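Notes to self after the call with IL:
- keep both proteins in one doc
- input above output, always
- annotate only the second one for now

Protein 1:
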Amino acid sequence: MLHLYQASLNSRLLLGTARYPSPAVLTQAVRASRAEIVTVSLRRESGGERAGQGFWGLIRELGVLVLPNTAGCHTVKEAVTTAHMAREVFGTSWIKLEVIGDDDTLQPDVFGLAEAARILCAEGFEVFPYTTEDLVVADRLLAAGCGVLMPWGAPIGSGRGLNNLFGLRALRAHFPGVPLIIDAGLGVPSHAAQALELGFDAVLINTAVSQARDPVQMAAAFAQAVEAGLAGRLAGPIEPRDLAEPSTPLIGAAFRG
């Protein structure tokens, strides 16, 4: 069971709702993924891409929890204002906090992120910060009141997987009791399985599903990968070795002259 703030969840897969070919495909993909949380950008949806109450009605019919996000915000003021709007629209204190610092990589502005997190946590929000694997930043976010961290695997939409394995392993080891969700950069189901095998608690996927040739099939594949990764971690994998170790014992083997 995955515990995020007061919510207890069976699924370790969170799904984004942007850039699907149609509302029908989005609906089918969410159901195939078995996700219990979907993320929604208030700025994007309010801008008319899927305008109006039709989209909100679709999300409500799916019976999933909504995690609004502050996608596209570049300043603390933008992010905080968007979070307040999202709380009014969705009636939730959850917010996926994004403060973008670089337009090419969409890397978080970790200084603005920590400041916005401090403000929002003090105002009663339950913040899911999109961050890097930096340990000092993680400490600042937790001190600000965040109960979950969402480090990137790679730049948003890049599909490159887990770019910094050393940093991600260090983050997991340094904060063993904190829910950690890999957010951004995963491209194929094996990336999600690897994240769960490393000890991360969940993954958030959007582009890898919505832009696949068959989003519904890809959503189902990610659901299976997350389950396999968790099962593999719980099974206790062997430690990597530098030399071969025979799986068949040599005792009793026929003599070779």
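Protein 2 (the one to annotate):
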Amino acid sequence: MKTVALVGRPNVGKSTLFNKLSHAKISIIEDTPGVTRDRIYSEVNYLDYKFILIDTGGIDVTNTEINKLIEIQVNIAIDEADVIVFVVDTKESLNINDRYIADMLHKCGKRIIVALNKIDNKDSLINKYDYYELGFSEYIEISGEHSNNVIELLDLITMDFPKNETTNDQRIKFSLIGRPNVGKSSLANAILNEEKLIVSNIAGTTRDAVDTIFNYNKQEFVVIDTAGIRKRGKIYENIEKYSLLRSLKAIDRSDVCLLIIDYLDGIKEQDKHIVSHAINAGKGIVILVNKYDQIDNAAKDEFRKLIRAEFNFLPYANIIFVSAKTKKNINLIVPEVLKAYENSNRKIGTSILNDIIKEAYQLKLPPSYKGKRLKIYYVLQEDVQPPKFTLYVNSKNLVHFSYYRYLENKLRENIELTGTPIVLKFKNRSE
């Protein structure tokens, strides 16, 4: 999947443009209860194209610590990006920060589009021509605030992007996602060494990553290692947003995601950030706790309880304690991946679904609101990966979040859905 970065000096309208682009045609992003989200990037679907959009902080040449940190983050985005949109403020004249950023971008060797922002301002008519001095080949006049030429900018961004294509690849793909240094590469190597049946290595679509194909019980799998940070000489290799970006790319190509947690390092907020993207993308999920060789049984039980408390939005994800070093429980990983994949693709008979929902409704009526109560007429399964169920009701506005969770739990009690999120959609029968 292609990556697009927005760069520029402070207060040129990058964040406004980011919001316009990421919500124009829209993305997979929806808030998940209990998950704190990092909004520095978004997955954008526009027409037949899909790409990752990154917002960055404003570069200011003033020599302060915070400005140095911002520039590091911008360099991360530039390294990862296929296309860079250089946002400038035509309401103001060209300044030293613009020139500094232009020098950076000329050296990066990437495709650069200069977005002449705030073009609706009368001062822009005077200043906009100054920015052509920067020497780039692609310019577009826009107004992020008023959405002028935003669609034209999307057309320009995606002009050389490959279109989304359906694939008949039947191999099960799973990725190892998580923070840096939790043992993703070591676990990938342990899985492959356990099988001793590596077929081939193929270049991944994520820069610096390798997808490895292997056989398990006469079935082909692809393991995607997202560790892939080979830039040892660069000071930003362990920065949170860099690993999040890599994980997002791998998640997009996966059927199942293995969230790796380092037992010795504990659970961090970033673990929730990363797995939230897998949930929103509808991927199967398994939680692996690495460094099992360092844990006694009592500590293992306590850590399992801690995981369930911290990831209370993931009760359906199985937890496996493993050790990349000693290979302990490595043999449990692929069967768990297979289970999550099969459940993510599970199709339920309509009569079975309606029996489950009817019984659940009779056992516990939904709460009434202003004298009205939700009525459920029937339910259909609309899709898989993940399973999506549409419930036809008298008024979808009467659906309370707690009752949504109740119905989801009843479905899980009666149907094997371990390892996969499910989606319940409510529609008025009149629709």
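Annotation: Confidence is low (pLDDT under 50) at residues 24-39, 195-209, 228-238. Residues 360 and 406 are 8 Å apart (CA to CA).
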